[in-house]
Structure formats: C-alpha cells, structure tokens
Amino acid sequence: MMKFKSPPVNSLSLEFLTEFSISLEKLENNRACRGVIITSTLPKIFSSGLDITEMCGKSVEHYTEFWRAVQEMWLRLYGSNMVTVAAVNGSSPAGGCLVAMSCDYRIMAENPKFSIGLNEAQLGIVAPFWFKDTFVNVVGHRIAERSLQLGSLHPAPEAHKLGLVDELVPEEKLMEKAAAVMAQWLALPDHARQLTKTMMRKAVLDRLVAHREEDIKNFVTFVSKESIQKSLRMYMEMLKKRKS
Amino acid sequence: MMKFKSPPVNSLSLEFLTEFSISLEKLENNRACRGVIITSTLPKIFSSGLDITEMCGKSVEHYTEFWRAVQEMWLRLYGSNMVTVAAVNGSSPAGGCLVAMSCDYRIMAENPKFSIGLNEAQLGIVAPFWFKDTFVNVVGHRIAERSLQLGSLHPAPEAHKLGLVDELVPEEKLMEKAAAVMAQWLALPDHARQLTKTMMRKAVLDRLVAHREEDIKNFVTFVSKESIQKSLRMYMEMLKKRKS
Amino acid sequence: MMKFKSPPVNSLSLEFLTEFSISLEKLENNRACRGVIITSTLPKIFSSGLDITEMCGKSVEHYTEFWRAVQEMWLRLYGSNMVTVAAVNGSSPAGGCLVAMSCDYRIMAENPKFSIGLNEAQLGIVAPFWFKDTFVNVVGHRIAERSLQLGSLHPAPEAHKLGLVDELVPEEKLMEKAAAVMAQWLALPDHARQLTKTMMRKAVLDRLVAHREEDIKNFVTFVSKESIQKSLRMYMEMLKKRKS
C-alpha cells in the first residue's frame, strides 16, 4: 500500500512526484509486490493535484524539470504491471484525478462533499492531451468533452454515475473494500493480466512517449505567459484567502 | 441567439446553409458574441435536415455546390470557438440532428412526439463519415452502429437515455434553461475552454478537411445514380401526400 | 437461421469453424438470404468458445491452420452483409462471446445462470487484439479494460446492464423475439444498411487483415510455450473433473 502524506493537501510538487516515481519503480522491480493501493493519510483530500507553486515565478529550467516529472509519474503509473487500486478518501481535482484515473480500479468514499474531476479549465489552463486521453478511456468522448470544457468537479455520487469512479463505499469501509478488490484482481494470473492491460493502454502511453519533448515545450511556453502567470497568482491568492 | 425560421420545416437548402454559415462567421468574428443558442421559430420542428429538393433532378454542379455548403456549415459549427447550445424545440431528423450534435450542449423539449436521429438509412442513403464521426463522439460506437443501421428516429425520452441529448425540459421552460446553460458555460475563461474544445474535436474536423473533395465526389456520384434519384422522388411523393 | 449443434458444448473446433465459414459464405452468396439468426440447439450453452483440444499438444502446422480458421470465421461474420442476430440461449464464454458480439444484435435468455464474456485472462491467456477491438466497439474502452483484465463472465442481467447484450427475454420467447428483431432490420433497404455497417466496422476488420500473418505467428508462438500448454492441460483436467 502507498499512502500519500504530504500536508497540507498532497499537492504534487516536484519532490513529491520524484519520490512517487521512485517508489513505483522500486515496487515494480520487487517481484514480491504484485499490487498497490493508493490512498491518502490526510483528512478530506486524496490529492489536490499539481503544485501550483511549481508553475509560478520559476525558471524555464524548473518548469521543464517539473513537467518531465509529471510525465514520468503518469507513464509509470498508467503503464504499471502491478494491480493499482485508488482508494479515493477525499477530494481529487486535476492531477489528483489523473492519479486516480491511471489506476486499474477506483473506489471512492461516498461523501458528496468529496469531488473529483479535471478542473483545469476553471483555472484558465488546458489539460494536456494525455490527461484527456486517459479521461476519454475512462468515461468516453462525450462526458470527457463536456466535463473538460466546464472544468467540472464531480461530487462522488455524480462521479460514480458517470463512470469516473467504479464504486462508492462508506468512508469507514474504504480500505477494507480496496483490499477485497485487490485480492480479486490478484487472483488472476499476472502474465495474462499484464499483457491485457498493456494491450488496452499502449496506444495512449505511446502517444505521450512519441511527443514527450513537444509536450514539455508546450507546457513551458504556456506557463511562461504573463497572462497565465497572472491567472495562477490570482488563484493562489484565492486559495490563501479561503484558508484563512 | 440564432433562430431558424425557414418555413415550413427549416429544411437545410443551399440558401439556408449559406446564410447559416455567413451568420456563424459574423458572430465568430464579433468579439462581443461569445455564445449562440440555436433554436427554431417553427412549431414542432427544429430542422427537417437537408433539403431533398436540392438533391433531386439537379446538375452535377448544383450537387457539388450544395454539398460544399453542407460541409462548410458543419466545419464552422462543430469547430466554433463560441459556446453553442441547441434548444431543440421540435423534431430533428438527419441534418437537423447533425446541427444539434455539433453544438456543445443539447436541451430538448420533453415531448415524446419530438424525435431526433440520423435516419438516412430509412431513405436508402448512407450518412457521410463525418456525420457518423460526430454521432460516435456523442453516443459512442455501439449506439451509433445500431442507430445508423436502423436509421432510428429516437423520441425525446429515448434520445436522452442514449445521451444524444443532454437534458429534457418542459417545452415552455426550454429557452429559460438554454439561457441558464449558456451562462454556466460563459462563466469559464474563453481561451482555456476554446483550446479544450479544439483538443476534443480536432481529429474529426481534420478528417473531413483532409478528405473534403473526395467526400464531395462521393456524394455527387451517389446522388446522381438513377436508383437513388428514384428513392428520393418516392420519398418526396410520400411527404407531399402526408401533408395533404 | 443457423443453429449451432456440436455436442456437447458447441466448442469451436477446426472442423466446426470451417463448416461455419462455408455456411456463411454460401448464405452470403445466396441473394434470397438477407439475414441469419444464430442460436444453439444444445441446452444451457450457446457456444463454449474455441476448442482447447485444438491448442493442446498439436503441431505448429495445426495451430496455424486452426488460428487461420478462427480469423476467417470472424472476418466473415463481423463483415457480413447480412443482418446477423444472435439468440444467445445459454452461456457464451470467450470465442462464444466473440460470435455473439460480431452479430448486429444480441438477445439473451434472461436466466442469470447463463453468462457471457471474454474470460481468456482466467485461463492465463490473452484475448487477441481483434477480440478486444470488437469488445471495445460494443461496450466501450473502460468496461472492456476491466472485464478483459479480470476475465469476467457476466451473468445475463449484468451483461445487459453493461451493453454486452442488447436485450433480455424469457427463454421461451427468445426465438420469437429474434424473428421480430430480424423483421425490423430487414425492413431497411439492404444497400444503405450494408454500407452503413461497413462504415462502422471497416477500421477494425482492416486491422486484422493488415496484421493477419503476424497475428497467426503470435498465436502459434504463444500457444507453443510450455507454460501455456501446462495451463491449458490443467484447465482441461478441471473441466473433465467438473463433468464427472
């Protein structure tokens, strides 16, 4: 089991992403480890997504390194040979939603105050094409088109109805249920399951691999724009005010 | 707001399509206009689709010009940077369904007498590949495959269940609801929303752009066949009889 | 109508597949025959799928011939110009599910003891890419990903909920319903319906045609592995024990 614990909100900073990728790599190479449950130790939040401070007022080199780390995490998680189960015990916007969607199965606490979605558009930014590809693979084209354009954060019951999460359980049963799902998936012969997973996900993984440098360039150019920097600063101000 | 008003049934004639495309272009270039609601001023009909008289007993040049106008309208509408909401206040077969499907959001009057669908197969003709691509993007492959083969016209409640329309409301609330949806979509920052829309629709738009002349040729060859001309004449006779 | 009758379980042996393909070809060339209902004369089983004895302890030449016959059957059935309706009157795992999915419409007896699905992963083998493509076309990417990885056999009510079958009817009404559905589909003009079907299925059919020899090679290499032979032998032992 892998527990996200990066107070206050498990935001995906460069450091966090790097550690996450290294942990995944270690587990992947550990033949005794066949599956991983991803959850959060923090109350009410699974992961708040990409750390906006990493995108604000930093150098081109920093943006480049940061974005490569985001890509790396996703390539490892979405392409993992292990069984990956997300136990979503809190809200999970943007990059947090990406982490959950990249797992094989998503169980969410049935609390309607918890929401999940790719809300980038709300911040004036655009989800990268591979966030979109992952999203389309989970919920289909139409739901993805609407949800991405509106930057929707779906409360747990709605997320379940849309197929964005596979199952809702009472919060106190979440880990028990995740363990049961893991046991069910681990009952399958590894080799056949892994090849099947690769068959389903390869096209989308390959697309990022083929366009990785271009995608970094796009991100760096985009995030370096003064208008985007301004949006992000305003968003951070708003978050600070909300907290206090 | 754009109101279709071309009695008796808002059929998409060459003239109508040309005006529609010009209006869209003007609105697109008008920075004050960020969204458009498309509806009909006629009772019971949103749009009856392509005008069959344009396909019957005319010259190759006419067919060519007509089909290019159909393509042009779709390229502009499906690729519009504006928020596009269809307020479907009546039946909407074939090309009428295409117009609705090309918008960002579809609200339909919950009258089960109103139906919507790509019913080309019923007339012995085949929906072009880009009608099909648009349809698949909205309802998915399986529903599209069955519905296209049967040329189904889905009553409003069924269309809603299939995801062909997003929402049903009582007829008298239709415009009010459309305005509310528009306000919701316009609350998003334009730039991020537009780029997201482009990301979702580009592949399908590009496919027609790449095969535009070939698609015109196919249409002209198909519609020029004596057997198709006969089918269309019979269909028009039937419509005339039904009216009287 | 085509009735599978190959006791005890309609398994798709080389002989059965060859006869099936020849029958399809004959019907296809018979202009009086515009549609075919596929069902089973055996109780409780529609088809048990590929005959495992054909994959066990045989020569490379035999595996090659067998796999080519599986491909041939699917290319003919999925690409058929006829209306094809599956009247699924019993369980339908693996290749049996492929047969049903390749038809235009699936009606299943609403007996929850009957199940259907691509359960290859349970046997330690991987469904070929064109089984997967067919599956994705029917149920979409997400359901296919989960179901294929788990090798799920879905009881009839669940299969219906997932969209894997179109309709459930009481077992005694199955043939009556299949005939009614056939009549509905045959009411459409053949030519438009056939072109529409081709438009929907061509991409997936072409993909196998383009990779046919490679796919045979993959199958032969895979099935020749000692580990796979062992799995298959164990599975056959288990089936034998279950029977006695």
List keywords for this structure.
homotrimer, 244 residues, alpha/beta, five-stranded parallel sheet, 10 helices
Describe the structure.
- Three copies of one chain form a homotrimer.
- Chain A is an alpha/beta fold and 244 residues long.
- Chain A has one domain: 2-enoyl-CoA Hydratase, Chain A, domain 1, CATH 3.90.226.
- Chain A is built from ten helices and eleven strands.
- In chain A, the strands form three sheets. Chain A has a five-stranded parallel β-sheet with strand order 1-3-6-8-11, sandwiched between helices. Chain A has a four-stranded mixed β-sheet with strand order 4-7-9-10.
- Chain A is globular, with a radius of gyration of 17 Å.
- Chains A and B meet through helix 5 of A and helix 4 and helix 8 of B.
- Bin the helical content of chain A: 55-70%
Uncertain spans of chain A:
none
* Second CATH tier, the architecture of chain A: Alpha-Beta Complex
First-to-last CA distance of chain A:
33 Å
Any idea how many domains of chain A?
1
Structural class of chain A: alpha/beta
Strand percentage of chain A, roughly?
Answer: 15-25%
Report the top-level CATH class of chain A: Alpha Beta
Strand ordering within the main sheet of chain A: 1-3-6-8-11
CATH-defined superfamily of chain A: 2-enoyl-CoA Hydratase, Chain A, domain 1
Mass-distribution shape of chain A: globular
Write the CATH fold name of chain A: 2-enoyl-CoA Hydratase, Chain A, domain 1
What is the helix tally of chain A? 10
Radius of gyration of chain A: 17 Å
**Topology as H/E string of chain A?**
EEHEEEHEEHEEHHEHEHHHH
Q: From the structure provided, what is the oligomeric state, counting identical versus distinct chains?
A: homotrimer
| Largest interface in this structure | A-B, 21 and 22 residues
Family (chains A, B, C): Belongs to the enoyl-CoA hydratase/isomerase family.
Subunit structure (chains A, B, C): Homotrimer.
Catalytic activity (chains A, B, C): (2E)-tetradecenoyl-CoA = (3Z)-tetradecenoyl-CoA; a (3E)-enoyl-CoA = a 4-saturated (2E)-enoyl-CoA; (3Z)-hexenoyl-CoA = (2E)-hexenoyl-CoA; (3Z)-decenoyl-CoA = (2E)-decenoyl-CoA
Protein name (chains A, B, C): Enoyl-CoA delta isomerase 1, mitochondrial
